[in-house]
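Key result, reporting period 2: structure in, sequence out.
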């Protein structure tokens, strides 16, 4: 086993095997966030043969600084919670693949899952739990300077901007949380908010207001990110006056929300306008034998506990489907 899963857990305690390509699994789960990992626990405990495919273990939880609303823990940091989830799944034993993304799915009676690297795996039922990813700005310089000043995860990258000036784009919860993370280490933080006020939770905005090195520019949008080898300035246009200002900054954090990772099932499953997979209250999608759970679905309230609960429901429905075929 050469998987890198062992932080805090001995290899001998990790009970998993590589996925087998000439086997038809009962249930194949796509995604290793709270929805996918909870689904895995439920499927294995039901005794169905289960495969788990994960691009990055933990999903959004791995990017979360601290969690105070997941039952059983008054406070736990994201990385630690992911570790707990992993230990829970791997105590049972599962066929597992980490690090490669699923590229497409064929939906016959037996479903085929195609990997980016050309491998193909089969299952009677699928659970799609691929969650969400950061939304991009789509302005000049964003791709060019990605990793050279353009960042999306303050939990991961804030320490690199110690003593520097940074821009945070977005005034919702993600933006305010990022500004707080950055205000602790950066020289100055400029928030660029599209609307006329911040829309994050009051408790977060109150926390933010304690920092003297944060300013907010309202009703404005970023039009380009500029520099030579790395980010040196950000152009910001006032939406009312049209005036463009250049803000000197060595970093820019794009915190304008998340989009569902549903591209792999576009044209196959029914999606809503936001691109989320539409499910019924038992996590069935528009195609028999394909179930979905968590943030990638149209179920409201994107939270760890909700995703976990939906993962459990999807697993139980998928197991019933397989056992009654
Ligand atoms: C900064 C931040 C802070 C948050 N704080 C909280 C909080 O305090 N409390 C709370 O309850 N919620 C919080 N949330 C929300 C919570 O993390 C999400 O609701 C939850 O993680 C959703 O779980 P999920 O399993 O549906 O998806 P995700 O966590 O997004 O996991 C998706 C999984 O699918 C994998 N994947 C994606 N595409 C593919 C593919 N093509 N092939 C294979 N695998 C794929 C990913 O690698 C990942 O493993 C926060 C989110 C963020 C971003």
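The corresponding designed sequence is given below.
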């Amino acid at each position: 086993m050469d998987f890198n899963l062992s932080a805090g857990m001995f290899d001998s305690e990790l009970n998993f095997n590589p996925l087998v390509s000439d086997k038809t699994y009962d249930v194949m789960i796509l995604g290793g966030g709270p929805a996918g990992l909870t689904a895995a626990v439920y499927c294995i405990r039901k005794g169905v043969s289960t495969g788990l495919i994960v691009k990055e273990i933990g999903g959004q939880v791995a990017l979360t600084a601290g969690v105070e609303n997941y039952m059983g823990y008054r406070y736990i940091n994201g990385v630690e919670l992911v570790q707990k989830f992993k230990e829970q799944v791997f105590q049972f034993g599962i066929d597992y693949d980490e690090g490669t993304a699923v590229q497409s799915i064929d939906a016959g009676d037996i479903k085929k899952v195609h990997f980016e690297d050309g491998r193909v795996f089969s299952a009677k039922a699928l659970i799609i739990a691929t969650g969400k990813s950061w939304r991009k700005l789509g302005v000049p310089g964003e791709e060019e300077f990605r990793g050279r000043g353009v960042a999306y995860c303050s939990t991961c990258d804030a320490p690199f901007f110690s003593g520097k000036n940074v821009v945070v784009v977005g005034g919702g919860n993600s933006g305010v949380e990022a500004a707080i993370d950055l205000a602790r280490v950066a020289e100055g933080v400029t928030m660029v908010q599209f609307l006329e006020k911040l829309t994050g939770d009051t408790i977060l905005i109150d926390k933010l207001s304690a920092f003297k090195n944060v300013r907010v520019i309202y009703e404005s949008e970023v039009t380009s990110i500029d520099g030579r080898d790395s980010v040196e300035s950000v152009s910001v246009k006032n939406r009312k006056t049209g005036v463009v200002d250049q803000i000197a900054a060595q970093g820019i954090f794009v915190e304008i929300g998340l989009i569902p990772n549903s591209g792999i099932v576009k044209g196959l499953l029914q999606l809503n306008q936001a691109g989320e997979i539409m499910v019924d209250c038992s996590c069935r999608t528009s195609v028999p034998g394909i179930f979905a759970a968590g943030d990638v679905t149209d179920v409201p309230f994107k939270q760890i506990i909700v995703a976990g609960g939906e993962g459990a429901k999807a697993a139980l429905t998928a197991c019933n489907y397989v056992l009654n075929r």
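The chain has two domains: 11-133+259-323, 150-254. The pocket of flavin-adenine dinucleotide is lined by residues 30-36, 53-56, 59-61, 63-64, 67, 69-70, 101-102, 129-132, 174, 261, 264, 294-295, 302-305, 307 (CB under 6 Å). This case is discussed further under Risks and Mitigation.
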